[in-house]
Amino acid sequence: MPICWFFEARTIAQKIVFRERALDTYTMQGVVQAYRLYYATHTLRPNMKIPLV
After folding, report:
1. What ranges do the domains of the chain cover?
2. What CA–CA distance (Å, rounded) separates 27 from 22?
3. How much is the pTM?
4. Using CA atoms, how far apart are residues 30 and 26, in angstroms rounded to an integer?
5. Which stretches within 1-53 are classed as H helix?
């Protein structure tokens, strides 16, 4: 049985951390470039183990 997920697109878009850089783009390549630029200049959260009990 498939699982369907529904999201409010505006709410999700507001949570994208590189959103401001991607707003001026018109192509997917521009979005990818904005993504790469953001993550090249910001550190990611450290990996954490998921507690399995």
Report:
1. 9-41
2. 10
3. 0.59
4. 7
5. 9-14, 19-22, 28-41
Torsion of CA 27, 23, 34, 37, to 10 degrees: 160
Tell me phi and psi for residue 16, to 5 degrees: -70, 120
| Res 1: pLDDT | 83
Q: Tell me which amino acid residue 14 is.
A: Q
**pLDDT over 90 (residue 42):** no
pLDDT tens by residue, 3-38: 998 989 889 888 888 888 888 899 999 999 999 999
Distance CA 18, CA 22 (A): 6
